[in-house]
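Throughout our pipeline, every protein is held as a single compact record rather than as scattered files. This encoding replaces a full spatial description with a residue-level series of whole-number codes. The remainder of this section carries one protein's record, kept here as part of the documentation.
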Amino acid sequence: MNIADMGIVAVPVITVIVFLVAELIKAVGLDTRWVPVICGFAGGILGMLAMSLMPEYPAKDYLTACAVGIVSGLAATGAHQVYVQLVRKGDDGDKADDAAIEEYTDGDADDYAGKH
């Protein structure tokens, strides 16, 4: 298969490549708060690269190609969160959710529950 014929298939490929980049970032110990930013940036770069390499890419200008890549890159973090949440629910996720609410509300979870 010729890479130029891939076209729209490149969009999920960007997501998979960026997902691997995110896992690499976590493996080397970089602060995870930067993962979405790095994923968006890497996706944008890959989107523009894909446009220049594949004539059938769904974007025809660099701005659109960058935007498609950024969305694809950020989809990698979303896909990871879906996986994490599904696994966490099987591993007593309710306690993890309660701990997250406690951390988010600075220990005043009752006040949070009453407002939402």
